[in-house]
Amino acid sequence: MRYALQAYFAHLGRFDKNLFNKLRIKGRKPFEKEMWTQEELNKLFDLLEQKKKTKLKLMFQVLLGSGLRVKELIRLKVKDITFLGTLKGKIETKTVLKGKPHATTMRDDLIDKVYAYTLSKKLGPNDYVFTTGRNNKPYETGSSLNQTLKTYAKKVGINKKITNHYFRH
After folding, report:
1. CA–CA separation, 142 vs 42, rounded Å?
2. CB contact at 8 A, 149 and 162
3. CA dihedral defined by 157, 158, 160, 162, rounded to 10 degrees?
């Protein structure tokens, strides 16, 4: 809302930065997004590698490299991903917000990792790519993934307020 108002008043030529810095949305505290540095990401991925948390590392890499929402990631099926051919790296999902088709892409090196992962797990086209450790059931929510991210971030000394959603930006 705040950014829409800024754009509107800037268009009118009446934008006052000092005024908008004082603007507060009722019930919310303003906060700065603390983005991760490349060094912090490398620390996290190195720790996950050391702990042999291949699936978690790959999940975080897919979030970072595709722009998928957490809910889209945990609902991702093998058939949603194009592994070979001219459309290699294309991911087609339904958006979380409105259920409409949504397409994005992944880098070739990352799509190759996901492909190798699905082959190693012997996943079929209708199987979820990422499942819980228990009975290969799909994740119900992304909250456990957020908690896992926070746990491993603390272990490598990253004390930022961050969730899996930040990998989209």
Report:
1. 22
2. yes
3. -130
Backbone angles phi, psi at 103, to 5 degrees: -120, 140
pLDDT cut 90: percent of the chain above it:
22
For 62-104, the pLDDT digits (tens) are 988 888 888 888 889 999 999 998 898 899 887 666 767 888 8
DSSP assignments along 34-100, one per residue: -PPPHHHHHHHHHHHHHTT-HHHHHHHHHHHHH---HHHHHT-BGGGB--SSTTTTEEEEE-TTT--
CATH number of 38-168: 1.10.443.10
Instruction: Report domain extents, the chain.
Output: 1-30, 38-168
3-state helix, strand, coil in the chain (%, to 5): 50, 10, 45
The separation between CA 114 and the C-alpha centre of its own chain, rounded to angstroms, equals: 15
Cβ–Cβ < 8 Å for 2, 21: no
Helices 143-155 and 54-66 cross at an angle (nearest 10°) of: 110
Distance CA 137, CA 146 (A): 18
